[in-house]
Amino acid sequence: MPLDRFQREIDYLRISLTDHCNLRCVYCMPLTEIGYAPPAGVLRADEIERVAKAAARVGFRKIRLTGGEPTLRPDLVEIVERVARVPGMRDVAMTTNGILLPRLAPLLKQAGLRRVNVHLDTLNPERLSRLMRWGGFEQIWAGIEAACAAGLTPLKINSVVTRGFNEEDVVDLAALTLERNWHVRFIELMPLGGGECARESVSRYVSNVDTRRRIEERFGPLAPLEPLHQSDESKNYRIGDAAGVIGFISPVSEPYCGSCNRMRLTADGRFHLCLLNDDELDVRTALRESADVEALGAILLRAVGAKPTGHALSQGISTRERSMHHLGG
Ligand code: SAM
Ligand code: SF4
Predict the structure, then answer these.
(1) Please, which pLDDT band fits residue 189 given cuts at 50, 70 and 90?
(2) Rounded CA gap, 293 and 63, in Å?
(3) For the chain, what are the domain ranges?
(4) Which residues form the pocket of ligand 2, taking CB atoms under 6 Å from any ligand atom?
(5) Over the stretch 281-320, which tens digit does the pLDDT of each residue have?
(6) Topology, domain 12-327
């Protein structure tokens, strides 16, 4: 397994398939002046497969497809097929807003996708439309049901807690776990990209300390669960004998950089070394010069070797070039 300079085991590759999206969540994408990668620069399915093979060769074991919105890729099923059959890749998952899952979920399952994380910030249709803009609650819920019916499980729900929009709705979201075997995870807002969304994310940040307090006020003390993996970024709890799990992902109030196991690949073919830092290493040029899997693996190991220790959000430092819809969370 690849080790970085700080002895972290890096075996998890998050691949952004596109920087486009069919929603415009207030903290992620502005309504105008969005910088997209030129289409010719976006990695093709065969190029993504070659990176996945190189990753498996140097010891990566887990891939997550993300975006932008990964389901917008017309060749998504082909990409899943190609990546899922790479020898040594144990887990292929996807993060999505769920809207296109009613059609895609069975096809993706058949292609080898194991599970999905669906982004749902509130169960309240009006507040959802304010926060996720262009998205409807019924559409996302239908996507969640389709994922469960297709067996893309265990289902995880990602909720970004945003002051003035949904900070009270965490209680209803947490209540989903009472009867359902789902993981509902609350994510702290991070400022990325230096623009309007970054400013929005700073002013609308809610600490998971407050989110947890709100949930405990309603359900009583949460019981902590042992982490399944040391690198799990989510601290997990259960309400009493509930069927599901509540998770807190707290990159701001409780950074987990010391156990980071991730590398990211942008849609335009660059290894992005840390979510909250602009440092990148190009792999597209090598791909387009027909580099073999060994050479691609060497580039990936260089990227692993260059990963920074951690982020510097507390000093007000984050990305300026890349926004969340380029990086995929
Ligand atoms: N479109 C898909 C989705 O929404 O799940 C995949 C890409 S989205 C960028 C990945 C995750 O990033 C989402 O689960 C969303 O909750 C999270 N996210 C987006 N902007 C964020 C921000 N500023 N801070 C924290 N999380 C954010
Ligand atoms: Fe789209 Fe996901 Fe960003 Fe929302 S968080 S705008 S669904 S990429």
Answers:
(1) very high
(2) 17
(3) 12-327
(4) 21, 23-25, 28-29, 67-69, 97, 119, 132, 324-325
(5) 999 999 999 999 999 999 999 999 999 888 888 888 888 8
(6) TIM Barrel (3.20.20)
